[in-house]
Amino acid sequence: MLTIHPRGYGRQFIILVFTTAWLMSPLIHAQTTIKSPTSGRRYQRLVVRNAMIVDGNGTPASGPKDIVIEGNTISEIVALDPVALKRGDAKRPAGDVEIDATGKYVLPGLINAHAHVQEKRGELPQPLEYELKLWLACGITTVRDVGASLNAAGDGIDVKRLLSLRQQSNAGEIASPRIFIYALFNSNPRPRNAAQARARVQEFKQLGADGIKLSGVDRDIMAAMEDEAHKVGLRIAHHVGVEETTAWDDIKFGTTSIEHWYGVPDAAIKDKVQNFPSSYNYNNETDRFRYAGRLWREADPEILLKVLDGMVAANVAWVPTMDIYEASRDLQRAQTQPWFAEYLHPTLQEYFRPNSANHGSYFIGWTSTDEAFWKENYRLWMSALREFERRGGVIGVGDDAGFIYQMYGFGLIREMELHQEAGFHPIKVIQHATGNNAKILGQEEKLGRVRADYLADMIVVNGKPLDNLKTLYPTGIDEIRDGKVVHTGGVEWTIKDGIPYHGPTLFADVKAMVAKARSERMSNPSQP
Ligand SMILES: [Zn+2]
Questions:
Q1: Could you tell me the CA-to-CA distances from 93 to 22, 79, 448, 455 in Å, in that order?
Q2: Could you point out which of 39, 124, 287, 527 has its C-alpha 20 to 30 Å from the C-alpha of 469?
Q3: In the 8-state DSSP scheme, what is residue 178?
Q4: Ligand 1 centroid from CA 474, angstroms
Q5: How close is the Cα of 97 to the center of ligand 1, in Å?
């Protein structure tokens, strides 16, 4: 069977089907009219045809297969028998609309386990649509927000606002990934004792949060908070800073995932104190990031293995967000990413400028010495991650974008590249971003796999991500074919909850949004 799909989508077009009947020799020319889906619309029966599938469980690619989506569920996956295909009598499921995935890879929808839904940066407005469409265009079908707070001030987003967005996303009313809300424990007013810690957990539970994001907390409050969270069934993401608690506390109290990495090497320092200079001030971000770059070398290798084993035994997962520290090891790379030219929103552009008033803008006066330390820091960190997984640990992927030169979605794909750099096989990298992240969310029975009866979250990738993870970037890649340069790549379709979104269309929307915002700011310079 040969299907010819013209460019474009959302239009009716003709597919010529050449069938060799298996009992009779003459070719039968059947003409069928098949609809390609319209972006943003859910169908009764959508079939993704001829797909090579990389599942989210770490197994090798397999295909070609036809994937049947009914409503928001994967109802059937049919492996196509190559002999029957050649003969022309392969059993193919019918669909109301079809996506031709010939020569393409289908992966579970990517999950962003460390996301920040943001409507403002540096108190300047930024349209939500910009971020949500970038995420979808980068193949992200689920985000775990770890930044919403009660009584949000400044750039923060309010839990209630995010709850209503989650509702709109679940109802398919907005083009958005699924949203899981891990609300900030240290929202205003900050819990000061065990009783207040328990009350805060109860409050989040009643509001309908999915979990709690913890950072900057003393041990006694952490103990009460985690105990209460386990009782009410809320999961816990812990950004362990350089502070009283370390990974040992996460192991003891049962944290779901350690975010970033501080707290892991800190738990392995023999003298139990970081060897910072006497002038060090944790609240000075340049100090904080500069000397963080010298922490992994302080970890005692033998104790570190015990910490990693402890995390494995206590089911503490690890979401390292390596992408968000990349400016520390290579500032110039971070500042000159090619997609900034047309896709960086002026609000984010302004926010990324070195400015000591904005979080993460610590790199004024950043030196080659800082970068050299950070490169070593990464090497040790990456080898700890490898060791953690070998010992049975669960590693997730998150972009932490909106800070330090990382754009929404692009940061997640960059994070996947860094997992590959750490030594993980691309199959494992994809598992980190799908099956493992689903496990961290406690959704492994519904999300993170291309499997019958799972929710229909998947992406159709225009190329071979196992060869080149850069294929996932919506800006695409160049390849040489028959001596000619061909521009290809990108996520062609992001299917979330059974709703297909056309990647290039979303990405064009983002481009237009950025162009409009730039021209508005040009004509009204009083609003930078
Ligand atoms: Zn974060």
A1: 19, 11, 24, 19
A2: 39
A3: E
A4: 23
A5: 39
**Identity of the residue numbered 268:** A
Instruction: State how far the Cα of 144 lies from the Cα of 437, in Å rounded to an integer.
Output: 9
Ligand 1 mean position, distance from CA 185 (Å): 14
pTM of this prediction? Answer: 0.92
Q: How far apart are CA 244 and CA 242, in angstroms?
A: 7
From ligand 1's centre to the CA of 239, what distance in Å? 8
C-alpha of residue 323 to centroid of ligand 1, in Å: 11
Write the CA distances from 271 to 4, 18, 298, 332, integer angstroms: 67, 74, 10, 36
The model's pLDDT over 99-132, given as tens digits with 9 standing for 90+, comes to 999 999 999 999 999 999 999 998 899 999 999 9
Alpha carbons 450 and 442: distance in angstroms, whole number: 17
Q: What's the 222 CA to ligand 1 centre distance in angstroms?
A: 19
* 338: number of Cβ within 10 Å: 10
Q: Dihedral (C-alpha) 435, 441, 444, 445: value to the nearest 10 degrees?
A: -150
| pLDDT of 18 strictly over 80 | no
Count the neighbouring beta carbons within 10 Å of the beta carbon of residue 123: 10
- Residues 277-321: tens digit of each pLDDT: 999 999 888 899 999 999 999 999 999 999 999 999 999 999 999
Expressed in angstroms and rounded, the spacing between residue 164 Cα and the centre of ligand 1 is 21
Q: What are phi and psi of 221, to 5 degrees?
A: -70, -40
Walk across the sheet containing 110-115 and list its strands: 110-115, 140-145, 178-184, 211-215, 235-239, 257-259, 317-319
